[in-house]
Amino acid sequence: MMKNDERYTKYSAFSFWEKKTYYNQIYVFLKWLNLEYPGFNTWYDNLFTENKELKSGREIIICEKEYSIAGIAILKSTEEEQKICTLRVAKRYQRQGIGKRLMELSFEWLQNDKPLLTMHSTKQHQFRHLMQYYGFELEQKNRNYYNIFSTELVYNGVLPAKKILFNRLERIDIDLFYKKYVSEGKYDLSEFVEACIHCWYIREQQRRIVMAK
């Protein structure tokens, strides 16, 4: 599908060999989402089968311009949920109507013009006009939902309750801090929690520095 010099294509429409190529290109385009969503790379990989086919109920719409990816929409459609999981437009192509076109193609595929959409709170200003244009309603603000120190904004619905899950390193941290505080005769819970949060904050900054290289 062509619009001006833009080409919009569904991932499912690519040939077997094209899928092998676009699987990598799409990830490279979106890899910075690992900064907002730890584990994004694993989530992305789980969208596909071993042969790089999309799993049932999934679609990716790709906009290409000047022989490069200009925008991406990742979609989910099941009996329980119709959702725009990811919507991104390259910075140099923003404010050119690509986001709107991706939204409209997403509505068409989902057969729903008010699907669930979530975004990191830092993106609210960037997407505010788009949300207003399509009448999306902000219904929920979830703190620490996908990542500690972050807030996820939820439009046209709510996310299920989620327990905070700690990874292996975080569990080791908690155990070490607990033993240290007990051995020092400290029992101030707020001080204990503050030490844990400080440790995770430092680790998050280090992870962002690595990702930025």
Q: Mind explaining what this structure looks like?
A:
This protein has 213 residues and is of the alpha+beta class. The chain has two domains: 154 residues, 3-Layer(aba) Sandwich (Aminopeptidase); 45 residues. The chain is built from seven helices and eight strands. It has an eight-stranded mixed sheet with strand order 1-2-3-4-5-6-8-7, sandwiched between helices. Helix 6 runs antiparallel to helix 7.
Sequence-ordered SSE layout with sheet pairings:
Layout: E1 2-3, E2 6-10, H1 16-30, H2 33-36, H3 40-45, E3 58-65, E4 68-77, E5 82-89, H4 98-110, E6 116-120, H5 124-133, E7 138-143, E8 151-155, H6 168-183, H7 189-212
Parallel strand pairs: 5-6
Antiparallel strand pairs: 1-2, 2-3, 3-4, 4-5, 6-8, 7-8
Short synopsis of the structure:
The chain is of the alpha+beta class. The protein contains 7 helices and 8 strands; from the N terminus they run ββαααβββαβαββαα. The protein has an 8-stranded mixed sheet, sandwiched between helices.
Considering the chains and any ligands shown, give keywords for the structure.
eight-stranded mixed beta sheet; 2 domains; Aminopeptidase; alpha+beta
The major sheet is characterized as:
8 strands, mixed
Mean pLDDT: 85
Distance between the termini: 35 Å
- Can you give the helix content as a percent range? 40-55%
Cα gyration radius (Å): 20 Å
